[in-house]
Each structure stands twice: as C-alpha cells, then as structure tokens.
Amino acid sequence: MPATIKGPAIFLAQFAGDAAPFNNLDNICKWAASLGYKGVQIPTWDGRMIDLKKAAESKTYCDEIKGTVAKHGLTITELSTHLQGHLVVANPAFNDVLDAFAPKEVHSNPTARRDWARQQVRWGAAASKNMGLTSHVSFTGSLVWPYLYSWPPRPPGLIEEGFTELGKTWKPLLDAFEDAGVDVGFELHPGEDVMDGITFEMFLEKTGNHKRAQINYDPSHFVLQQLDYLEFIDIYHERICAFHVKDAEFNPTGRQGVYSGFQNWVNRAGRFRSLGDGQVDFTGIFSKLSQYGYDSWAVLEWECCLKSSDQGAAEGAPFIAKHIIQTTGKAFDDFAAGDGSSKALVKKMLGL
Predict the structure, then answer these.
(1) Which residues touch 328 (CB under 8 Å, ≥6 apart)?
(2) CB 302, CB 37: distance < 8 Å
(3) For the chain, how far is it from start to end, CA to CA, in angstroms?
(4) Closest Cα to residue 212, out of 129, 287, 134?
(5) Residue 285: how many CA atoms within 13 Å on its side-chain side?
(6) What is the mean pLDDT of residues 198-206?
(7) Residue 328 to residues 67, 291, 298: CA-CA distances in angstroms?
(8) Nearest to 232 by CA among 41, 184, 243
C-alpha cells in the first residue's frame, strides 16, 4: 500500500507547565492520549519532559522515556531543539532577550550561551538516535534577520557573510545528525534567517546541500508571509521530513498589512489560529503531502491568540484525523481496465 500520513500527534511545548496534568511526561501523555492523539513531539529544553544530556548518553534512559510514552498508547514523533537551535547563531541585537532561552549559568555571556546551544543540538542528534528516531525538528538561528527590510540600505555582502557563517556553523552539527542517521527538519519561521524557500536554498548552498538539512513544514508562517504554501510542497516535497499542523489567517486592511504595525497578536492582520479557525487549506495540504508520499507525522502545534489551549488541543486531534488520507493501492477505474498485462495485447492494440 502507498504511504499514509501518521497522526494525530501533538507538540507538547505550548502545553507543558507546573500544574497537573502538564507537569511531567507521564501526566501530559495520559492527557494527550485521552484527547485522541497517537504521538507526541517532545521539547528537549523542558526538564519536566526529558533530560536531554541523559538521553544523549543513555539508551536505557531513552527506553524508559519511550516506555512512559508507550504506556499511554503513544509514540514519540520527534525531539525538538527549537529554542536551542535559535541560539546556535544570534545577532547581538537580541543578546538580552535571548537569555530567556538558556540556563542562568550562561546568561549575559553570548559566547557561553552559543556553545551551550551547539552542545544541546549535538545531544539532540545523539538522543534522537538513542530513541530510534529518524527525524528531529529545530530552528536555524538568526544573524541577518534585523536587516530583512533594511533602511538605510545594508552594506554589500552582509547577507552573504551572514549565510556563510550560518552554513559554517551548522555543517558540523548536521554532520553529527548524519552520524546519528537522523534528518533535521528546520521550521521556516520569521525571526530565523531561514524563513522561506529562497532562504532555505541559500542555507543549503552554504552547507554543501547537506542531505540532513530538511524542512519541518508549517503553513501558518507562509500565510503570514503571503507565500504559496501549496506550491511550496510541489517545489520542496523531497526535503519535507516533518509537519506542524498549525492554522493562521491574514486579513489586511487599509491600516496594516504583512508587518502588522507593531500590534499585539489579537490586533495583527496576520495571526495564528486554532485548527479550523483560520484560512489554511488543510485539505489541499494533506492531499499534496499524500500525493508525494509523505509518511511521517502530522503534529498539532497550537498557537492561538483567541481560543484556549484546552479547547484547541481537544479540537485538534479529530481535525487532523479527519484530514489524514488513507491512500489507495489501486486506481478507481481498475474494474473497467481489463487485463492489460499482456505485451502481445498491447502491441495488437497499437497495430505493431
């Protein structure tokens, strides 16, 4: 049978917290399973969910984590190093606010924070291998993002230099994932230097078209950029190894457009929504991904400025399940095709 998308699954990052049932992996998996999810994507920066260093060093510990998840009928879809990946390279303009993504011992020390992040990503590769996973999700980090729409004009060579550094930094990290036999699905996200197809191609060039540099497909970011997210699948489907199912809407007015006028999320022209409340054509997306043989997970990433996370999670599992296409192994008109297996018949029909 042709490949079928797995799911529904849920990214735990936006739900983890200090109150039950979100305060540890066992409790949150029980909660996710009760809503109908079949898989969980684990944020590795959250010690309530996983000890990343221990996971990188101990397959026994990874088996225990997998056992905790499996006890609730769930599978680990991917490990995530989104926050650590964002710190792998960082423009100094963000130094103060980026400390929030790192432990206190590296605060106010950009070099130590960078080294910590790169080690975290390496551990992410080793932990993914120990978990028996074949894909991982992350961010690329950002050196040139502050100069996206630059005025005064940015100096010649700035973007080239930034992407050269980005590629040089990620090449050995991607090599670590190659050694682990794991793909890295980068979420193409505004705020990261790699945020659309063009920048992904620039990144690929600077990493020597590294085969482990893949895409975590998330259409919500493309809606906010007004990018054709269906054609994107046509172009880059061979590099898509992970899928965040997240909705969004873009409602420009005479007062604001893509940049949204520095407004908060509720008042932006472009904003994230819970599944089914936005404008993303998920029927088209699931059809395209199925057409190209995507057989990995469909993972809910809940981010909405209006609806509660409880309601968004409860509605997310049946929404994803409804969109998963059980791909067929036969053509709808096979019943009328007759026996076309005879080469002699084919030649006769062509008069050959």
Answers:
(1) 2
(2) no
(3) 34
(4) 134
(5) 23
(6) 98
(7) 33, 11, 19
(8) 243
Q: Give residue-wise pLDDT tens across range 232-245.
A: 999 999 999 999 99
| Residue found under tokens 């929504």 | 273
Burial label, 174 (beta-carbon count in 10 A; 0-12, 13-18, 19+): buried
Question: What's the pTM?
Answer: 0.95
What is d(CA 21, CA 15) in angstroms, rounded to the nearest whole number?
A: 10
Whether the CA torsion 100, 103, 107, 109 is positive or negative: it is: negative
Token pair 């981010």: residue:
303
347-350's contacts with Cβ under 8 Å and 24+ in sequence apart are none
Tokens of 326: 């059980």
Cβ count within 10 A of residue 324: 16
pLDDT tens-place string over residues 274-300: 999 999 999 999 999 999 999 999 999
Q: b/e string for 306-320 if b means 16 or more Cβ within 10 A?
A: eeebeebbebbbebb
Per the CB < 8 A criterion, the answer to whether 126 and 57 are in contact is yes
Closest CA relative to residue 322, chosen from 282, 278, 279, 281: 282
* pLDDT top residue among 281 and 1: 281
Place of tokens 């085969």: 211
Q: Is 151 left (phi over 0), alpha (psi -120 to 50) or beta?
A: beta
Q: Please name which of 304, 300, 288 lies closest in space to residue 248, comparing C-alpha atoms.
A: 304
CATH of 6-349, one of 3.60.15.10, 3.20.20.150, 3.30.70.140, 1.10.10.10: 3.20.20.150
